[in-house]
Amino acid sequence: MPGRPLPSRRTVLRSAAAAPVAGLGLAACSPGDDGAAPARPTAPVDLGAEGAVAGGEAKLYRDENVVVSRGEDGALKAFSTVCTHAGCPIKKLEGAKLVCPCHGSEFDARSGEVLHAPATVALVELPVEVKQGRIVVSPGT
Predict the structure, then answer these.
(1) Phi and psi torsions of 70, nearest 5°
(2) 116, CA 20 to 30 Å: which among 92, 99, 122, 138?
(3) Model confidence, pTM
């Protein structure tokens, strides 16, 4: 349309990031690696065998944007691995430390707490349980 300015690339990307997409984690304000922001799950997700996460350890499920840890007491915890700073999906787990590739934020995979800025808000905890020997993560609230 003559005389009407076109939207900027940033405006177009922000609009696309607001659209729901498949995956596990939070809807974010910045796009992920593929240009789309990970979204909140709409149904429980089966992550696999309960034995995949040993006591005192954590396992990163990259495709589902979730990390699951098991305490020494056997209790499971799950967190979204969408960085709370800029919405980037975290794809790197070093021991019990999650490292965001976008700006270097670091999180404890066992508690979701921020270990290193720029993030200032902990990861979102997700409900997790064992059903018939399988680890199942449910949508967060």
Answers:
(1) -125, 125
(2) 138
(3) 0.72
CA distance linking residue 104 with residue 124, whole number of Å:
18
Strand pairing report for 97-99 and 106-108:
antiparallel
- From residue 80, how far is each of 10, 25, 140 by CA, in Å? 25, 5, 9
Tell me the per-residue pLDDT of 73-100, one tens digit each, with 9 for 90 and over. 999 999 999 999 999 999 999 999 999 9
Q: Residue ranges of the domains in the chain?
A: 42-137
Q: Is 107 helix (H, G, I), strand (E, B) or coil?
A: strand
How far is it, in rounded angstroms, from Cα 75 to Cα 1? Answer: 59
Q: Look up the CATH superfamily of 42-137.
A: Rieske [2Fe-2S] iron-sulphur domain (2.102.10.10)
E strand segments, 25-127: 45-49, 58-61, 66-70, 76-80, 92-94, 97-99, 106-108, 114-116, 125-126
What's the N-to-C CA distance of the chain in angstroms?
42
Helix (H) or strand (E) holding 11: helix 9-18
